[in-house]
From TrEMBL:
It comes from Candidatus Staskawiczbacteria bacterium RIFOXYB1_FULL_37_44. Residues 8-71 form a coiled coil. Keywords: Coiled coil. GO terms for molecular function: DNA binding. It comes from the Bacteria. It holds the Pfam family YbaB_DNA_bd. The keyword rRNA-binding does not apply. This is Nucleoid-associated protein, YbaB/EbfC family.
Length: 84
């Protein structure tokens, strides 16, 4: 039982460190930053692009940022040594 409590405490610490992780993706002047809780922290659009282009690029940036942060967090979990 105490082992489970210890694992829970370790997971809570890990969750806090994950929140500090950030990934930024930039494509053609459109910039997206998300954190380890998958919250969008920043979006910058490009005035040089039309609305349709910005929407498509924004979607690409969000998807790429999500994939990158997932990979980063998975690597950190694997290297943490916590056994479930």
């Amino acid at each position: 039982m105490f082992e489970n409590i210890k694992k829970l405490q370790e997971l809570k610490k890990m969750q806090e460190t994950f929140k500090q992780e950030k990934v930024t993706v930039e494509k053609r002047g459109v910039v997206v930053t998300i954190n380890g809780n998958f919250e969008v922290e920043e979006i910058k659009l490009s005035a040089n692009l039309g609305l349709d282009e910005q929407q498509n690029i924004l979607k690409q940036c969000l998807n790429e940022a999500r994939e990158k942060i997932q990979k980063t967090l998975a690597q950190k979990m694997m290297s943490s040594g916590i056994k479930f």
